[in-house]
Design a protein that fits this description.
The protein is an alpha+beta fold. The protein has helices at about 1-20, 40-55, 70-80, 100-110, 140-150, 190-205, 225-235, 250-270, 275-290, 290-300, 300-320, and strands at about 60-65, 90, 95, 125-130, 155-165, 170-180, 325, 330-334. Helix content is about 50%, strand content about 15%. Strand 5 and strand 6 form a beta hairpin. This is MobA/VirD2-like nuclease domain-containing protein.
Amino acid sequence: MTARRNIDGILIQWGERLFYPGNRIVRPDYTPRLDVGLQFRAAVIRGRIAATVRRAPQAFVRVTGGGRGMGAIASHLRYISMDGELPFEDDRGVIRKGKDALSDLVEQWRHGGTYIAKVEDRREALNLVLAMPAGTDADQLRQAVREFGRLELAEHRYVMVLHKHQSSPHVHFCVKFESKNGSRLRHGPQDLSRWRETFADRLKSLGIEAEASRLASRGEIRRFEALWRLRAKEQDRPLSAPSSTKRGPAHEKRCFEAMQGWAAILKALQSSELDEDRKLARRVMDFMIRTPYVAEVMRKNPEMMRDAGQYQQSRRQELSQTVTLQRSGPEWTR
């Protein structure tokens, strides 16, 4: 029992560093790991580990810009609603469509709270996109975003519009910076991380598999293209090619620390008496050596690449021994 508790403790210690970076605002309803029993906390971490190593779909929350004045805000609202043709839903749950309804909303935002002029020196609205991969149920996605807004941005005016005419369903979400009590919205890296966690949690509550792990925790080094670049490509405008990888000492440090965490988790799972833990350990090892960060490190260190190649060969042999062909039919089972 002591060994099991020690393993659980290690998983919690390193798992929370990987999956739950510190937030300035802690919402107890969505951080049960902080106030429940050790076994439950460890089970939650095991679930996050298993989902990450099998590369579960990642919840996507991205800042796409913001309006410096009512002119820019109105233009964005027209764009996301296709000039009022698509229904838009506000923070009260009211769903409307049409140019007149959109103009009415713009006037409400202009005069509600501090007056917003056509042009302002600072951003008065934040534009977000919340999305999931192709195949996700669009209506369920909208419900998850609806619940996200109520939980995270209840003190702010906002508008959401579902787009499902493209390959991946997504929701455009425009929120006023000034809250109903006059405070300004915070949207730093820790806030965005928490927003992704809440969005993923709401998706899971609706039966949609979703994770919200950081790029560094997944060993990712690719760089996402800016929205303006994507739009420029759609319009066939020439662009210089950006770097496809995310560089810099800060990201390198985060990836290195994440792999340290994975190594500690791997060691703990390998030492467990539970078959499920040891099986999970093998999947963790497979995941680690396939991450772009580790692959890049191995390219620079041929010795590590040889060791990884030997491990992959042994894993292929192990898997081939556990796969059998059933006599009763053509299906392969493990």
